[in-house]
Amino acid sequence: MQRHPDRELIVLARKGSRDAAGALFGRYWLFAWRAAYAVTMNRTLADDAAQEAIQRAFGNLGRFDTTRPFGPWLKRITINCAVDELRRNGRPTGFDVGLPPLEEWAARDASEEGLELWAVVDAVVALPPAKRAVLVLRYWLDLPLEEIAGLLGLPVGTVASRHSRALAELRVSLSEEQHNAI
Questions:
Q1: 119 or 179, which is more confident?
Q2: Same fold, 1-91 and 97-182
């Protein structure tokens, strides 16, 4: 199907067009998966969260306001699904990016900067899901706190508080890591 605006694809998909639904899916699957992965940091959990988000979004296309952009709506659904996956399945045990374990990677990149980066990644992975989601959305997806609040359906003050507390936990975790390395 040629490049149609999202609004047009949504209207056609509502009328039962499989081509329009397929085009919309093709346009947004990777977007949803990346958002889910940014929160879960685990491929399996990201697969499940993105699939759930797509199912929810497509199941609710009839209620979607076509005067608004589809991407942010889907991102909000995806983030919520990813946080739900984390709650159901617990914290991931490591940063699952298809790279070697931290120790093996550190041996390859023993520079101080490389080790610090992986220490930060591990510390973020260890945060509770709600705090991790805020940090990932803020620093890895580069979203302002107001947009994060909108995506998560939370007051800006709550997001700011989670952000502040997550940074404080990271500082403690990273200083302990540095102290233990000495």
A1: 119
A2: no
Within the chain, residue ranges assigned H as helices are 6-14, 18-40, 43-59, 70-89, 102-108, 112-125, 129-135, 145-152, 156-181
Q: For residue 102, which of 20, 177, 9, 155 has the smallest C-alpha distance?
A: 177
> Thinking of the domain 1-91, which architecture would CATH place it in?
Orthogonal Bundle (1.10)
| Residue-wise pLDDT tens digits, 55-104 | 999 999 999 999 999 988 898 899 889 888 887 876 554 444 443 343 44
Residue ranges of domains in the chain: 1-91, 97-182
Second CATH level (architecture) for the domain 97-182: Orthogonal Bundle (1.10)
What pLDDT digit, counting tens, does each position of 5-19 carry?
Answer: 999 999 999 999 999
Number of helices and strands (H, E) in the chain? 9, 0
Task: Kindly report, residue by residue over 40-57, the tens digit of the pLDDT.
Answer: 878 899 999 999 999 999
What φ, ψ does residue 39 adopt, rounded to 5°?
Answer: -85, -45
As a whole number of angstroms, the distance between CA 129 and CA 126 comes to 9
Global confidence as pTM: 0.61
Give 171's contacts (C-beta < 8 A, 6+ positions apart): none
